[in-house]
User: What shape does this take?
Amino acid sequence: MARQQLQVLNALDFAKTQLYHFTAIVIAGMGFFTDAYDLFSISLVTKLLGRIYYHIDGAEKPGTLPPNVAATVNGVAFCGTLSGQLFFWWLEDKMGRKRVSGVTLILMIICSIASGFSFGGESKGVMITLCFFRFWLGFGIGGDYPLSATIMSANKKTRGAFIAAVFAMQGFGFLAGGIVALIVSTAFDHAYKAPPYSMDPVGSTVRQADYVWRIILIVGALPALLTYYWRMRMPETARYTALVANNTKKAVANMSKVLHVEIQAEEDKVEKLVEAPTHSFGLFSRQFARRHGLHLLGTTMAWFLLDIAFYSQNLFQKDNFSDIGWIPEAKSMNAIEEVYRIAKAQTLIALCSTVPGYWFTVFLIDIIGRFAIQVMGFFFMTVFMFALAIPYNHWKNHNHKGFLVLYSLTFFFANFGPNATTFIVPAEIFPARLRSTCHGISAASGKAGAIVGAFGFLYAAQSTDKTKVEAGYRPGIGIQNALYVLGVINFFGMVFTFLVPEPKGRSLEELSGENEGEEGEADPNTKTVPV
Assistant: This one.
């Protein structure tokens, strides 16, 4: 037999949209703004790091990071993120979302600043300290991922849009990284004029260029620093306080204050819920496997496959742009100008496709649903990947603009698609006491995909022609074949989406089965009633 919903949770499901919701979106979303800035700003400066620390006298081309160094610098933060997700998902369900939030933000602030102050007597020392601090930066980001998802308590009719709006702050983080790089590189290029590499290999990289990458990385600490104070002022989530911490009085007091409604504590009802078998099964129980096993498989695999494609595209888009000639040859520019060109390209992509994609999801997710958006996104990502791959030589040699349009559309449908929904759905369909855990597992699976994308694409995308392979690399399968592989990956992402239920318009307790009786029978008249 079904049990009646707690009034404090009913109040959340039926509350009118008000200032509290928008404040929560900004505060939770600033974590994602910081995450995106910190994770992707490194791709703006890797070429500069190669010029500064791996210059070879007499070389025809500017210095580049050796393969193992490039892979580590690009991918170590994702290794930290995966580790952080596996650690913090457990801690958040034990200690609460709010308490752990402060720890993750402090770690992100310290490591962002420390990354910019990476030290060493030679190139090896600088790279080791940079990678060390970026690993721990990623560790903090990993804790913030499930936290930012589960912290957003909203009306069930607009819950998807609100969580999507939190995640959409990631798009502004991408954009901010490009804008900061543009500002810093422009200022330094004007202040310290330098000839292109082809004219003066040594003079093309001025001594002050070493400050450029450091400033870009340090700026990532600012949004986390600004967010910390407001995160600490937010109340603990009502569902954690009531259903996990079993403190209904505190949950009621917190939500009455922010929602401006009268709510009853109903402590006796909480005791019955906690003692019930449907509220006590664990992650590794048969009951969880029966209820949510396929759901967890669907969320983890869809996120894993998405992030292989998404992160390889984001981290190495500068290489694709160079390959088709949108970014000039490195030897025709000085070091700081190259940073400017890369930042300009990535900013345009973010502005024209990445950010709009996120906000299409925000406005439409509670209308057409998560399932439709995710299937549609994976479908069009597959189509556009093959549209880029099949006539790749045509795009490369005759139609750069056409390539850029299709490439931008893959970003648009990634964000108006699975990049948003794979984050949102795990925060909705699992029980409150396991919600952060299951979201952390799903997100960690995604970061495993990001690691595959970061390390794999770097090697796989190398030319099949030995004479065109970058120094230190072996021949790969080439960018054209890499695009084919990404197309196939996106297709399988679409297939795994069919294992995940549609959460649109349903309360979190309906989705997770937390207000069902022992036999799992649900009575719609006793599930959720307006207060």
